[in-house]
Design goal:
- The protein has 343 residues and is mainly beta.
- It has a domain at 121-326: Neuraminidase, CATH 2.120.10.30.
- The chain is 10% helix and 37% strand.
- The protein has one helix and 23 strands.
- The chain has one helix spanning 21-54, and strands at 71-73, 79-83, 86-91, 94-102, 117-120, 126-134, 139-147, 155-161, 168-169, 175-179, 184-188, 197-201, 216-222, 229-234, 239-243, 251-255, 262-265, 270-274, 279-283, 293-296, 301-307, 312-317, 322-326.
- Strands 1-2-3-4 form a four-stranded antiparallel β-sheet, with no helix packed on it.
- The radius of gyration is 34 Å and the shape is extended.
- It binds 2-acetamido-2-deoxy-beta-D-glucopyranose (3 copies).
- One 2-acetamido-2-deoxy-beta-D-glucopyranose (NAG) binds next to loops.
- The chain crosses the membrane at residues 31-55.
- Keywords: Membrane, Transmembrane, Transmembrane helix.
- InterPro entries: 6-blade_b-propeller_TolB-like.
Length: 343
């Protein structure tokens, strides 16, 4: 029998020093530690990337002061907001920066007691309505304070009786106040240093006749071409009344309006009406049977500001403590890029 030489097994070229149980354990622990570190790193990386992904892009949203109940948008689109006993102003070019213009932490005096309404005229003079309830006598007193532009000291312009929520200043600086509790709108004359007032709408008895009002709240004055047409949100009568200068009675321009707390108008006879939780559009040409077009719904707010040049509405969202601007912005549909032929 021939025996074939079996090949001699080669010596392993790598070091295979014998490993003890201890060594194996050590390696095991090392592997586990490495594995754990890797997992932790992966989790951290994932978390960081998720955070980056989920965090919304930083917008320049201003942090509002406390709770705002009213706002005013002036001619220059500066936004004035009440904050308990202060008034804060936001400028359109630096909306993230607020300036406290009246009240605590401001150089302007006096400190007001929860202002109800603000009005700023085209010369940036400021008017503030403040209302007190006299518990002893059980009636309301309202006051209008005035700060001329840049002045630090306010002065009291007038004091009247009745509950009210808004004011409007015409171009002669006369002050219109819808006294909702007295069911009338009064005008205080600048020429008489606001000593005297007259009734411009309503006869003082609540009712639904054309010479009457029932809880007027919001007003809007159309003083173009010296018309002086006063539009009134006649809340309990659910209508918008128009009273022309020296008229003995009003005309109903829109009926079936739910709670017209604040009203504004655009150049097409549309009325933007804020009723406390919805914003609606009414047209005076379509007076009956229509309940308005919803622009916004379920939005509890204290006030509305309307920019009738751009059709933007500013809402003071009291539930969420936010001021929100809704705007209809145009887009370019057609654009002729060719230059006009030269003659
Ligand atoms: C108000 O202050 C501004 C800037 O400080 C100034 O330019 C302006 O002339 C002042 N206006 C009035 C009416 O004093
Ligand atoms: C206020 O009205 C009364 C009566 O109309 C008038 O006598 C008085 O002079 C007026 N006051 C001012 C400051 O104009
Ligand atoms: C207001 O007008 C109504 C209806 O014409 C009338 O009944 C009421 O007495 C008037 N009120 C006053 C104070 O004149």
């Amino acid at each position: 029998m021939n025996f074939v030489d079996l090949p001699v097994p080669l010596e392993p070229t790598y070091d295979r020093s014998p490993r003890t149980i201890k060594d194996l354990c050590k390696e095991h622990i090392k592997a586990i530690t490495l594995f754990t570190i890797c997992i932790v790193i992966i989790i951290i990386l994932l978390a960081v990337s998720m955070c980056l992904f989920l965090t919304p892009a930083k917008k320049n949203v201003a942090v509002l002061p406390m709770k705002s109940i009213t706002l005013f948008l002036d001619y220059y689109k500066k936004l004035y907001i009440t904050d308990y006993d202060r008034i804060v102003m936001f400028s359109p070019d630096s909306i993230e920066k607020a300036s406290i213009i009246i009240g605590k932490d401001s150089i302007r005096l006096p400190i007001l007691d929860k202002p109800r309404s603000i009005f700023v005229d085209v010369d940036e003079n400021l008017y503030v309505l403040e209302v007190h309830f006299d518990f002893k006598e059980e009636f309301y007193i309202y006051r209008v304070w005035y700060w001329s532009k840049n002045s630090t000291n306010g002065k009291k312009l007038l004091e009247g009786n009745g509950d009210c929520y808004s004011l409007y200043i015409d171009k002669y600086m006369n002050i219109y106040i819808p006294e909702n509790g007295n069911h009338r709108v009064v005008i205080w004359y600048a020429q008489q240093q606001y000593q005297n007032f007259s009734i411009v709408a309503g006869n003082g008895t609540s009712g639904s006749e054309l010479n009457q009002l029932n809880e007027p709240y919001g007003i809007y004055l159309d003083e173009n071409n010296d018309k002086f047409d006063l539009y009134i949100g006649d809340v309990k009568n659910r209508r918008i009344q128009k009273w022309s200068l020296n008229a003995a009675e009003g005309i109903t321009v829109v009926s079936n309006v739910n709670y017209p707390m604040q009203i504004a108008s655009d150049c097409h006879d549309n009325f933007i009406v804020w009723n406390g939780d919805a914003l609606k559009l009414y047209n005076s040409m379509l007076t009956t049977g229509l309940d308005g077009i919803y622009l916004l719904n379920n939005f509890y707010s204290g006030a509305m500001g309307y920019d009738n040049k751009n059709g933007a509405v500013y809402i003071c969202d009291m539930t969420n403590n936010k001021i929100i601007k809704f705007s209809i912005e145009g887009e370019i549909l057609l654009h002729n890029t060719k230059e006009a032929p030269t003659a």
